[in-house]
Amino acid sequence: MADNKQQQATEFTNPTANTAAPDQNLSAETLGNEGNLWTKYQNIILGAIIGIAVIGGGYFYLQISNEEKDKEAQELLFRSVYAFEADSLDKALNGKGTNEPGFLKIVDEYSGTDAANQANFYIGAIQLKKGKFAEAIEALSNFKSNDFLVQARAYCLIGDAYLEQKNYAEAEKFYSKASDYYPNERFTPAYLTKLALTQELNNNLTEALSTYERIVTKYPLSADVMEAKKAKAKLEAATAE
């Protein structure tokens, strides 16, 4: 039995174990047929090889091109961010001259780059401040990030925009997404507070109580916990009547 197992293992690792030795006396006709096959299909084979090379070369070219494009866009983005932080919102949004194109132009001219993605976040924040809620929602919805703080913040801002539109159902949805996205001690309690308040506005009182309880139990050291306790007690009294 052991000998059989060893033989099986040997045959498995040695693909030539049960393969007959190649015929050393191949006929001239066989060799001629193989040559004919190459002649017959050489254009197809060469075309396939060239096609693969072109696709591969094109991919690497696009990678390098996108990296260079993003580098250029990042330099322009920095100037707009500086204007944003200085509270020059119009300048940050629309730019000033060719060296400061503004967030809107960066998104338009550098589509697909990381810089354009980041610009969408700033556009959304600015439009929200300007009271242009639909534009804010659109820009922030186009923003995607793996950063657990910034992406949650984007969800919260979308919730703010829907809240301003009195669309409580959508506001609740995005505050919930912000609260559930990589929960943390610093920001999550504030998102939960907004969620609970919106749930009250949406007459989802049971869910609101649950959200306040979540703040109290999971984030007892947060700055929002006292307000959460008060709101919870008030809501419990109101629902008990």
Explain this structure.
The structure is a single chain. The protein has 2 domains: 51-144; 148-241, Alpha Horseshoe (Serine Threonine Protein Phosphatase 5, Tetratricopeptide repeat), CATH 1.25.40.10. It is 76% helix and 0% strand. It has helices spanning 2-13, 28-85, 89-94, 103-109, 114-129, 133-141, 148-164, 168-180, 188-201, 205-218, 225-240. Helix 9 (188-201) packs antiparallel against helix 10 (205-218). The longest helix is centred in the N-terminal third of the chain and has 58 residues, at 28-85.
Brief digest:
The chain is mostly helical and 241 residues long.
Q: Top keywords for this entry?
A:
241 residues; mainly alpha; Serine Threonine Protein Phosphatase 5, Tetratricopeptide repeat; disordered N terminus
Annotation field: number of helices: 11
Q: How many DSSP E strands?
A: 0
Tally of individual domains: 2
Profile the largest sheet: none
Task: Give the overall shape, derived from the CA principal axes.
Answer: elongated
Approximate strand percentage: under 5%
What is the mean predicted local confidence, pLDDT? 81
Helix content: over 70%
Helix/strand layout:
Layout: H1 2-13, H2 28-85, H3 89-94, H4 103-109, H5 114-129, H6 133-141, H7 148-164, H8 168-180, H9 188-201, H10 205-218, H11 225-240
Helix pairs in contact: 2-5, 4-5, 5-6, 5-7, 6-7, 7-8, 8-9, 9-10, 10-11
